[in-house]
Design brief:
The structure holds two protein chains of two kinds. By secondary structure, chain A is α+β, with helices and mostly antiparallel strands. In chain A, about 40% of the residues lie in helices and about 15% in strands. Chain A has helices at about 25-35, 50-55, 65-90, 105-130, 165-175; strands at about 15-20, 40-45, 150-155, 180-185. The longest helix of chain A is centred in the middle third of the chain and has 27 residues, at about 65-90. The termini of chain A are close together. Chain B is mainly alpha-helical. The chains are: A alpha+beta, B mainly alpha.
Amino acid sequence: MSLEPNVNGTPAVHGVLAEFETPEKLIEAAERAYEAGYRRMDAYAPMPVEGLAEAIGFKRNKVALAVLCGGICGVIGGYSLLYWITNIAFPLNVGGRPLHSWPSYIPITFECMILLAALTALVSMLAMNGLPQPYHPVFNVAAFARASRDGFFLCIEATDPHFGIAQTTQFLRDLGGSEVTLVPA
Amino acid sequence: MATKNPEQELLDNNILTPVVDPGPQSILGPGHDYRSVTDRISGIVYLPWKRSPKKWLVGAFIAFCFVNLLMLACGYLFLKGVGIWGITIPTGWGFAIVNFVWWIGIGHAGTLISAILFLLKQDWRTSINRFSEAMTLFAVACAGMFPILHLGRPWLAYWLMPYPNTMWLWPQPRSPLEWDVFAVSTYMTVSIVFWYIGLIPDLATMRDHAPKLWMRQVYGVLALGWRSSAIHWHRYQKAYLLLAGLATPLVLSVHTIVSFDFAISIIPGWHTTIFPPYFVAGAIYSGFAMVLTLIIPLRSWYKMQDLITMRHIEASAKLMLGTGLIVAYGYAMEAFFSWYSGDPYESFMYWNRMTGPYGFTYALLILFNIAIPQALWSGKVRRNLTLVWIISIVVNMGMWLERFVIVVVSLHRDFLPSSWGIYIPTRWDWATYTGTLGFFTLLIFLFVRLLPSVSIFEVREVVHHEKHPEAAHVS
């Protein structure tokens, strides 16, 4: 394949991928790559590895904030729905009791909060991760299938200002990465 | 990406050769690494259908017959109405409500295992959480059928939801029955979300290693392009933790609200404040019983004894014993308060419950739910698979009887003796009930064959922690 940029200027290379034996070695490699100035990179592991995302410079996880907002919307939406039904749309006088009978609104308001918060957790996690994603260049590397079984990978991406095919490949080899491969975009 | 000869590789992995249970101390058999746990769990799904265990085929066929019985019972119900059931006045709530409460309760252990034990960092939940979540979904699906079938005009079930309509008619949100609609539908939705979010990384594993193209396509679509990125995992774990934190109060609220269906009314035997906690404990009790009933045969058919070990069985049995004791306390308090209240209707209700026409159900209930499970105090019994399995079935029956005693026996003696009656379930009651049992079993059987029934990535974490005990904790 050609390593020259395509006609429209997008790089023909996604990055350089290296495999590491254990999660510990992967974290160490990621930390050293970060120290060396690389920022546009991603690490891949078949299960969550404590500290790996932080090692490649990931800081702000906004899922919790989104879920909080979802929950608040659920509370406000649920309570308003009940108030509107019982006071505005269909006011029903039951033995002279007040129309705004807030204690009996609590169960449904609570369920609406849980429902919206849970749906927000799913949707925000997927949306922030950019999923669903039909195509991603890392899958072009055959060995990458192991990332969902027993392989630990680090990919330094071509969009990084420090990236150069030769020196990044050499850098990853020096870190102890095996099967250092070019990832076609 | 498949390897060169996946079919042969699958046979080499010997998915169905016997394995050793490492005993009550360990949650994972010896000699496992990331690759072997992946291949063993996903291999069960890749197994060609014609190599399914005979017992699976026979079980699935019987379950399928009962599904047909369910179709028949529902079809006849749609033609004739609820008159084909044994319900009448004063017993307006019969099998349908008994089964609804029973099924919902069974679902609760799944959420307890996946959410509450996750928050409590119980590492043994890992190999059985996926399975229990599936059990939750299928049990709630069975439960949800009953109130709808009970409506009389089930095709108008959507009237239960508040939506703008030409009649300008709205449901009554002050009623516990309407709370139930929201509680059960939220529970179903959140259970699906929780289950699916847990499946995404495993679906990606299935996509990357399936031996056939169509499998890679199907699992690939379901995996949404998951590529095991560290940043994705970070957000994933946060979302999973939050879902566990949301599911925990949810599961407690659902059976609380189900118990409000009874407790908010003024029927003696229903109108009591102990119902919410006592219903929740009973739900978890029956749920653990169902987990054990299903997991003991399935782990042996699919040779998963090194993934679902005696440690899991024993821990579930202990939790069953513990929640059973809470239920026993509930029975004692019900009896005490019906005497202590001094209310003649309350005292009569309990006396009638023990000695009336349905007295035998109460005697069996005490035998099944309180007396027999005490055998689980003995470690020898807890480690005897046959006994644990039998006790789990006894508890399932006991919890069903509890719902029967609460619903039917409280109703059949109205305040005025002139309104007393006897409820006798008809063959259509039994057909609907056994039909849902078949439906549930068939779904469980299909689930085991179509999706990884043990969470692969979480077992990889267990492998990681066993290699590095200093970093061991459930993340």
